[in-house]
Design brief:
Order of helices and strands: EHHEEEEEHEHH
CATH class of the largest domain: Alpha Beta
Low-confidence stretches: none
Radius of gyration: 17 Å
CATH topology of the largest domain: Structural Genomics Hypothetical 15.5 Kd Protein In mrcA-pckA Intergenic Region, Chain A
Strand order of the largest sheet: 3-2-5-6-7
Oligomer: single chain
Strand content: 15-25%
Largest sheet: 5 strands, antiparallel
Length: 126
């Protein structure tokens, strides 16, 4: 792939809307949480191109993404979704249910439900 175009991995992750900012994408890479084709990426300036497979955590889900194209800008979500193919196993996505969706019944959580949510997130917020 040396003759094809390459793009910084942090910039591509930002353009594909996996992270809100390039600095968050860069922190993920430099923290050792990103793999490119199964190998850890040490720097955010690592080049990626079409055909590369990225593996990284997003929340409580480990995402596996194959790059289809390089973006020219950070456009709307439908444009960003055309940049990659999601290879994340379906069972990983099914396990990840937003905490508020776990509450059955009324649309508004009770005080008891809010306490459960706080414990699920790692303790009460102060």
């Amino acid at each position: 792939m040396s003759d094809t175009a390459r793009l910084r991995v942090d910039k591509w992750l930002w353009q594909a809307r996996f992270f809100k900012s390039r600095s968050l994408a860069s922190a993920c890479v430099t923290g050792g949480h990103l793999r490119i084709n199964g190998r850890h990426a040490a720097k955010a300036s690592a080049g990626v191109g079409p055909g590369d497979v990225l593996t990284f955590p997003q929340g409580k889900v480990v995402r596996v993404v194959k790059i289809l194209a390089l973006g020219t800008r950070r456009g709307p979500a439908p444009e960003a979704q055309g940049l990659y193919e999601d290879l994340t196993p379906a069972e990983n996505l099914e396990k990840h249910v937003p905490p508020i969706a776990r509450i059955a019944g009324n649309s508004r959580p009770t005080k008891r439900d809010r306490r459960k949510l706080d414990l699920d997130r790692g303790g009460p917020l102060e």
